[in-house]
Amino acid sequence: MLMDDAVEPVDQAQMTALVPREPTSAALSQAAAAADRAASSALFAEYRQQLAARTRTAHDQDLARCALYLADVGVSVGALAVEPAAWAGFTWGLVEGFKRWMLREGFALATLNRTLATIKSYTRLAAQAGALAAEQATLIAAVKGYGRKQGRNLDAERAKIRRSTKKAQAVRLSLAHARALKEQPTATPQGRRDALLMCLLLDHGLRVGELAALTVGSMDLDAGTLTFYREKVDLTQIHLLSAATLRTALAYLRHDRAGAATEEALLLGSRRSGALHGTLGVRSIQARVQALGVDVGLTHLSPHDLRHYWASAVIAGGTDLLALQEAGGWASLAMPRRYVERAKIANERVKLQT
C-alpha cells in the first residue's frame, strides 16, 4: 500500500491569526475617535470649498472683524475660519456683545446682519464638530440682527450723531501733505503700520470700514494686489498696489505680521510706546488719522478726507470719471463727482481734438 506524501502539521497559532476577530471595544473607540477628529478637521475645509470665492472673501472679513472685537475685549482665539477648536469658548453673550460693538464702531446694518449670519454658520459647524456645546450653538442661533424697520430707526439715531459732528467741508490736502503722511518712520512697528495705513487710504481710496476689515490674506505680495470687499455696494474688488503701498506692505508684513494666519486682521492697534497690540477698528483708525494729520499741520483730518484727496488726485492725473467710479466702488457717477474738487479753471481738463 502506497503511503501519501507526508504533510507538515498545521501550526494552530497561525490558523488562529488568520481568522477575522471582532474588534475590541477599546480598539473600536479609538478608531471612532480618530475618525471623528479627521471629520471635524475636514468639516470647515469642505464647507469653505463649496462657497463662491466672493463669499469666502466676505466670510474672512466677517471673521476678522469678530477677531478684532475679541481682541478688543481681551480674548485671544485661533484661526476661526479653519479651526473648530477656535470656537470652543464662544457664548451667546459674546455674540451679543459683538453685535453692540459693531454698532458702536459704525458698521452698516447690512454688514452687521451678514456678519451675524456668518458667525451662526461657523458656530453651527463647530457644534457639529464637537468643539462647541450644542446648547450654546442653539443660543447663538437665536441672536437676532435688525429688521428693516429697526434698522431705519437705528440709522436715523446714528445719523443725528454723525450730523452733529460732521464737518462743513472736507479738509483739503496738498501733494506735499499726502507725501508727508505716507512717509512715516519705518524703523518702528507703529511707523510701518502707519505708513501702510496711509498708503491704503491715499493711494487706493478705501473707506474706513473697508480698511478695518482687511485681513492678512487680502494682500498678495507676489502678485502685487489687494483683494477687499466694499460692503456699501456689495462688491469684491482687486486693486493693483501702488509702488508705495507695495513697499510699505512688504516692510510691515515681513517685520510685524510674519507668521500671521491669512484670516487674521491686517492692521493692528498700538500702545503709546509704539508697540503693536490689540485692534485697529474704525474709531481707532479715525483717531490715528487725526493724530497723524496734526503732525503735518492738518487739524481734524479724517479717513474720509483722504478718500476725497484720492478721488481728486486720480482725476488730476488723467483718470476719467467712469474709471474712478469703478475703482472707488461707487454705484453711480453722481457720487464720485461730489468727491472731486472743482478745477480752478473750468475747462482745464477738457481735451479738444486737433
Automatic annotation (TrEMBL):
Ranges of residues in domain Tyr recombinase: 168-352
Taxonomy, superkingdom: Bacteria
GO BP annotations, alphabetical order: DNA integration; DNA recombination
PROSITE patterns tied to this protein: TYR_RECOMBINASE (PS51898)
Keywords: DNA recombination, DNA-binding
InterPro entries according to UniProt: DNA_brk_join_enz (IPR011010), Integrase-like_cat_sf (IPR013762), Integrase_catalytic (IPR002104), Integrase_recombinase_N (IPR010998), Tyrosine_recombinase_XerCD (IPR050090)
One Pfam family hit: Phage_integrase
Claim: Acetylation is one of the keywords in the record: no
Keyword Aminoacyl-tRNA synthetase on entry: no
GO function terms (MF aspect): DNA binding
Annotated PANTHER family: PHAGE INTEGRASE-RELATED (PTHR30349), TYROSINE RECOMBINASE XERC (PTHR30349:SF81)
Protein name: Tyr recombinase domain-containing protein
Organism field: Candidatus Chloroploca asiatica
Lineage: Bacteria, Bacillati, Chloroflexota, Chloroflexia, Chloroflexales
